[in-house]
Design brief:
mainly alpha; about 0% strand; Double Clp-N motif; about 180 residues
């Protein structure tokens, strides 16, 4: 049976082990990001796909932002990526510079920045002794890469990423 999240990152878990290390909600976000990338004709899941899935799927992620209008603006940018905004990304590999571009042995179907974000989410969960990474872990890991597509979208929507990161760091202890 193939893993529904279809992720296998660097030193992280094997593909078949990921389901045991992420919450059901995060597994659903990953699946939605993969479907969105396929629908958009993108070769890889990138950090903007992951951000879109997080915003659509998790009320705690939406609550981390400064209200409904900011979330609506973010979703507006993300929805527009396939019809205009973000077309400069179409067919390109997301390389934020946070990790070296992987030419071989990378995560199939994932941009290097998206794979690094998932590894970061798992690291955050392990650092707080949680058994599974959750959606807020992934959001925090996305915000940690200032050159990612997700952070570009956040900045265009006037999100103060430093403030968001601080808010997420304050919420880490209460997650499961």
């Amino acid at each position: 049976m193939q893993n529904r999240t279809a992720y296998s990152g660097g030193d992280g878990p094997a593909q078949e082990d990921l389901d045991t290390q992420v919450t059901v909600e995060l597994a659903s976000v990953v699946s939605a990001a993969r479907r969105r990338a396929t629908r958009d004709g993108d070769r890889q899941v990138d950090t903007a796909h992951l951000l879109h899935g997080l915003l659509e799927s998790d009320p705690a992620v939406r609550a981390a932002f400064d209200g409904g209008p900011q979330v609506a603006r973010l979703l507006g940018y993300l929805v527009q990526r396939s019809i205009g905004y973000g077309l400069e990304w179409h067919g390109t590999v997301e390389d934020s510079g946070a990790v070296p571009v992987v030419t071989e042995g990378g995560v199939p179907g994932w941009s290097p920045a998206a794979a690094a974000a998932m590894d970061g989410a798992l690291d955050r969960a392990h650092a707080r002794y949680a058994t599974r990474a959750g959606c807020l872990d992934l959001l925090a890991a996305l915000v940690d890469d200032p050159e990612s597509r997700a952070v570009e979208v956040l900045r265009r929507a006037s999100v103060d990423t430093a403030r968001l990161a601080a808010r997420l760091d304050g919420e880490r202890p209460g997650q499961d």
